Amino acid sequence: MAIDRTVLVSPDAMGQIDKAAADSGIDSFGLMRSAGAHVAAVVLARFPQAQRAVVLCGPGNNGGDGHVAAKLLERSGMEVQRFGMEPKPGGDAARARALFPGDICPFADWRPRAGDVIVDALFGAGLDRPVSGDVEALIERAGRAKTPVVAVDLPSGLSGRTGEPTGACFRALHTVTFAALKPGHLLMPGRELCGEMHLCDIGIPARLIASDDTVWRNHRGLYAAHMPGSAASQHKYTRGHLVVFSGPLISSGAARLSAMAGLRCGAGLVTVAAQPSAVMVQATHLTAIMQRAIRDVAELTDWLGDSRLSGFVIGPGFGDLEKARAYTSLLAEAGQPVVLDADGLTAFAGKTEELAELFAGETRLVLTPHEGEFRRLFADLADDVTLSKIDRARAAARAQNAVVVYKGADSVIAAPDGRAAVNADAPASLATAGSGDVLAGIIGGLLARGMPVFEAACAGVAMHGEAARRAGRGLTAEDLPAHIPAL
């Protein structure tokens, strides 16, 4: 059966899925045997020259998977030695252990040797606290010896809920998981600690692999149906008019990046609303993008009477925080979607309640903070170590009635209604000055074209990553707009 590689399931929800499978009549031990077989297959395929499989078995079902894998690896001709704990009596893990009798040695007895590969079947996603001292010592020995690790479900010591280590943690080269991905597989640093992911179908029906926790890996299915189309009858105004606000002369480049990105993703018109001092320098750089000099609140108020203006980006290189707040207040009254980025976010540090009041009602605000900006806006959430990045983004989205794009290598897009998506495939080359300005422009352009807010944010983040892949290594932010994929 096809396995859904987009849904993310919390460890608690996965436990309920396992229980539902057993309650529906599916042989739970059969699932364990299938899981162990997948683990053994990855070990044999990826480490054909390994001389000894060091299988670490915990007391629960993760350890049971390890016992099954150990037996299959021994049958394949590999030397196998198990370390760890006896399983809890009466369950599937005890049954797997009984089918492969033999010694289970204490952790302290393992001495690394050339040709070892570790199968970490200790705890998987079931542990959300630090590992014990003897396991920590083993993890340290494995790290010093550079012994390769294949983790079962999750590297032991890594939270499947937050993607954060709870203490000492294995760094796996491969992680074999079953039925569905967990948030910890995608959230940083968990994604790096998992190594190459292997999501395996062990026979749990797709109808059971569901969760009331509406969180996904960002994928085209979240937004494709809402992407703006093309028709012969269209003209520039029906394709939306995006406005990007420019800062002073010295920092006007950020607005140009946003504006060009908005134009490249299909907005019919894009205007840079510049302070008068920046108009001349903008004119030397812009051709297809229009300009308008906006001196103050009064001039902006007059312009906002034009009903053809359909989306706004404010913040990139803007500089004047007081003016940013005043302009944002007017944009909120105009009733069109707004992307608040960079200085636009910083302008509301300590004033998030004011921002939430401005955008009460229908959701039409997108916030795009990186880690530092998120902390300036939501210090209480950023400091709460019990929360995952998904939890933080969702809480901020609810509080602000906004879609929050919490940027990073594991960007999280969260809506006030609880929907969330984790983007996990953007290349590292996006870590360059100005790339966030481009992202704000892409999202702004999609909003100006009429996309719903959450879907526009998900699509924008995906298109941003695709542009970076097309641009290749060594890209600069100026390269990105030309590589934005066509709708």
TrEMBL record:
<dbReference type="InterPro" id="IPR030677">
    <property type="entry name" value="Nnr"/>
</dbReference>
<comment type="subunit">
    <text>Homotetramer.</text>
</comment>
<dbReference type="InterPro" id="IPR029056">
    <property type="entry name" value="Ribokinase-like"/>
</dbReference>
<feature type="binding site">
    <location>
        <position position="62"/>
    </location>
    <ligand>
        <name>K(+)</name>
    </ligand>
</feature>
<dbReference type="InterPro" id="IPR036652">
    <property type="entry name" value="YjeF_N_dom_sf"/>
</dbReference>
<feature type="binding site">
    <location>
        <position position="317"/>
    </location>
    <ligand>
        <name>(6S)-NADPHX</name>
    </ligand>
</feature>
<comment type="function">
    <text>Bifunctional enzyme that catalyzes the epimerization of the S- and R-forms of NAD(P)HX and the dehydration of the S-form of NAD(P)HX at the expense of ADP, which is converted to AMP. This allows the repair of both epimers of NAD(P)HX, a damaged form of NAD(P)H that is a result of enzymatic or heat-dependent hydration.</text>
</comment>
<protein>
    <recommendedName>
        <fullName>Bifunctional NAD(P)H-hydrate repair enzyme</fullName>
        <ecNumber>4.2.1.136</ecNumber>
        <ecNumber>5.1.99.6</ecNumber>
    </recommendedName>
</protein>
<dbReference type="InterPro" id="IPR017953">
    <property type="entry name" value="Carbohydrate_kinase_pred_CS"/>
</dbReference>
<feature type="binding site">
    <location>
        <position position="254"/>
    </location>
    <ligand>
        <name>(6S)-NADPHX</name>
    </ligand>
</feature>
<feature type="binding site">
    <location>
        <position position="156"/>
    </location>
    <ligand>
        <name>K(+)</name>
    </ligand>
</feature>
<feature type="domain" description="YjeF N-terminal">
    <location>
        <begin position="14"/>
        <end position="210"/>
    </location>
</feature>
<feature type="binding site">
    <location>
        <position position="120"/>
    </location>
    <ligand>
        <name>K(+)</name>
    </ligand>
</feature>
<keyword id="KW-0479">Metal-binding</keyword>
<keyword id="KW-0630">Potassium</keyword>
<keyword id="KW-0456">Lyase</keyword>
<feature type="binding site">
    <location>
        <begin position="407"/>
        <end position="411"/>
    </location>
    <ligand>
        <name>AMP</name>
    </ligand>
</feature>
<dbReference type="InterPro" id="IPR004443">
    <property type="entry name" value="YjeF_N_dom"/>
</dbReference>
<comment type="function">
    <text>Catalyzes the dehydration of the S-form of NAD(P)HX at the expense of ADP, which is converted to AMP. Together with NAD(P)HX epimerase, which catalyzes the epimerization of the S- and R-forms, the enzyme allows the repair of both epimers of NAD(P)HX, a damaged form of NAD(P)H that is a result of enzymatic or heat-dependent hydration.</text>
</comment>
<dbReference type="InterPro" id="IPR000631">
    <property type="entry name" value="CARKD"/>
</dbReference>
<feature type="binding site">
    <location>
        <position position="153"/>
    </location>
    <ligand>
        <name>(6S)-NADPHX</name>
    </ligand>
</feature>
<dbReference type="Pfam" id="PF03853">
    <property type="entry name" value="YjeF_N"/>
</dbReference>
<feature type="binding site">
    <location>
        <position position="436"/>
    </location>
    <ligand>
        <name>AMP</name>
    </ligand>
</feature>
<feature type="binding site">
    <location>
        <begin position="61"/>
        <end position="65"/>
    </location>
    <ligand>
        <name>(6S)-NADPHX</name>
    </ligand>
</feature>
<comment type="similarity">
    <text>Belongs to the NnrD/CARKD family.</text>
</comment>
<feature type="binding site">
    <location>
        <position position="370"/>
    </location>
    <ligand>
        <name>(6S)-NADPHX</name>
    </ligand>
</feature>
<dbReference type="Pfam" id="PF01256">
    <property type="entry name" value="Carb_kinase"/>
</dbReference>
<keyword id="KW-0547">Nucleotide-binding</keyword>
<keyword id="KW-0067">ATP-binding</keyword>
<feature type="binding site">
    <location>
        <position position="437"/>
    </location>
    <ligand>
        <name>(6S)-NADPHX</name>
    </ligand>
</feature>
<feature type="domain" description="YjeF C-terminal">
    <location>
        <begin position="219"/>
        <end position="487"/>
    </location>
</feature>
<keyword id="KW-0521">NADP</keyword>
<comment type="similarity">
    <text>In the N-terminal section; belongs to the NnrE/AIBP family.</text>
</comment>
<keyword id="KW-0520">NAD</keyword>
<keyword id="KW-0511">Multifunctional enzyme</keyword>
<feature type="binding site">
    <location>
        <begin position="124"/>
        <end position="130"/>
    </location>
    <ligand>
        <name>(6S)-NADPHX</name>
    </ligand>
</feature>
<keyword id="KW-0413">Isomerase</keyword>
